[in-house]
Amino acid sequence: MMSSKTRSLSMLLAIAALLMSACTTPANAAGASEAPVHAQRSELAPARTVLSVRTDRHLQVALKTSHDLLDGNDPPTSRADVVACGPAVEALVAERMPPELATQIERLTERGSRVVACGLSLHQFQVDADQLHPRVTVVDNAFIEIFRLQRQGFLSIEL
């Protein structure tokens, strides 16, 4: 029997695969290239992703998924940001953070990705930005940040 974490990760990866397949160009869909699918994917530029979360549980899954994306080749991924809004920002408070979560944030930022907290949510949940893990980046508005990243070509998923 699958754990809920495994199911969540499987669903997230399935959604990502569906999004990527939806981006197929008409030329590719018409069979313009006879190369195997794995060869075509390896020739693509590495993906950049942003995972948006609203709960502490989804934050944990998104951090794990970001590491999995950076570790894997399908799709090749060069950056995997995690954006927390709503109640998820409370999980980013350093003093209450489990050591495993702190380690995941540190490892992810060392790999060139970001963990981002929404300033509007910080205000709503009365969390001072100075209380957050030092590697967390604060933006004024998570939605605007996600739109900005999408304009730069990031693939995005909201949990």
TrEMBL record:
PROSITE patterns: PROKAR_LIPOPROTEIN
Organism domain of life: Bacteria
Residues spanning the membrane: none
Keyword Iron-sulfur appears in the UniProt entry: no
Signal peptide: 1-29
Keywords: Signal
SUPFAM superfamilies named in the record: DsrEFH-like
Protein name: Sulfur reduction protein DsrE
Organism of this sequence: Lujinxingia sediminis
